[in-house]
Amino acid sequence: MFAWLKSFASPKELSKAGVLGMNRRNFDIISQYNPRCLYPLVDDKVKTKELANKIGISTPRLIGIIEYQYEAKNILDIIHGQKEFVIKPAQGSGGKGVLVIKDYQEEGHFFTTASGRQLAYNEVYQHISNILSGLYSLGGKYDTAIVEELVHFSDIFKDYSYQGVPDVRVIVYKGYPAMAMTRLPTKASGGRANLHQGAIGVGLDISNGKALHGVCRDIPITIQPDTGADLMKIEVPYWREHLLIGALAYEMTGLGYLGADIVLDARRGPMMLELNARPGLAIQIANGIGLKNCLKEIDKSYPSGLSAEERVDFVLNKRAK
Fold first, then answer.
1. For 277-320, how does the pLDDT look when each residue is reduced to its tens digit (9 = 90+)?
2. How far is Cα 196 from Cα 282, in angstroms, rounded to an integer?
3. Mean pLDDT for the chain?
4. What angle do CA 219, 225, 229 make, to 5 degrees?
5. Which domain does 219 fall in, by range?
6. On the CB side of 246, how many CA atoms lie within 13 Å of its CA?
7. Is position 56 within any domain?
8. Which listed residue, 50, 57, 89, 119, has the most CB atoms within 10 A of its CB?
9. pLDDT band for position 5 (cuts 50, 70, 90)
10. Taking the complete model, does pTM exceed 0.70, yes or no?
11. Do both 161 and 297 map to the same domain?
């Protein structure tokens, strides 16, 4: 299935096949269409959430923010009355530092993680302290800890995901959804939807959200190893709404090339989790096609001046033909 990628012997052949490499992504795309002054809008999850809420993009509800070490002790006040929540760094990367609490018992202050591990208050306090010190942040800078509501992912993914929350990554170029995949947590990834940690990537048809190809650690895969489910039967519901979030993210940030990470909540539908100004390129392997030609087609034949909704409809109609 991915023989097309492994069969090319040189970078020149990969380029001919439409595979976008990291250097070309950085110099031809990111440096040209993503001004560095706009990076803080997506690198800081608090700013991203505030911007999204202003233009009506649904995001997980913010419960509280901890900015300084002396405030870490306030966590018990912040989560008072909450049974489940997520603690994560505002400027984290690669899913690092995300602590998912599925059950919190106020009496005794016992925390249960998504994997069933029991944590005491001191362990959670230390995790927040580590976030604030920059242990998980981009460049090791001092960070802010965010406490937000836990997403209850849709049953559509229950056979495809192990413990954690699956998401959909949409690559958006000049406001147009260009390529998409869903990332599915596995036992090997520790319940995180991170491909580098062993999660599964399944390429999705941009016109309908149906599975195209699957990959795990760069190896072709069609069956979820933890559940035995057929990955090729995945079809993401509310597909237009997923793409619209990505298209609106372009309006919201001004970034010409971005990755929008979207979760499907069972109660609230598609919600934007975060945005990325430097999305990785593994999405090409998951889709079995190169990204370079997709971007060239957008440059060449996609109209300018359309609204976010019009751009999404243009993509759906064009790719469906």
1. 999 888 999 998 999 999 999 999 999 999 999 999 999 998 66
2. 9
3. 91
4. 110
5. 3-43+154-320
6. 35
7. no
8. 89
9. low
10. yes
11. yes
Domain boundary, last residue among 125, 148, 171: 148
- Four-point Cα dihedral 285, 290, 292, 296, nearest 10: -140
Torsion angle of the four alpha carbons 163, 211, 280, 62, in this order, in degrees rounded to the nearest 10: -50
3-state secondary structure of 278: coil
Which CATH number does the domain housing residue 126 bear? 3.30.1490
Q: How far apart are the first and last CA of the chain?
A: 24
Closest CA to 185 of 171, 167, 201, 199: 199
DSSP-derived 3-state class of residue 309: helix
Q: Work out the pLDDT band at 8, boundaries 50, 70, 90.
A: very low
Q: Which of 96, 130, 148 is the last residue of a domain?
A: 148
Alpha carbon distance 273, 49 (integer Å): 8
pLDDT class for 163, splitting at 50, 70, 90? confident
Residue 50 lies in a domain: no
Does the structure show a pLDDT above 80 at 6? Answer: no
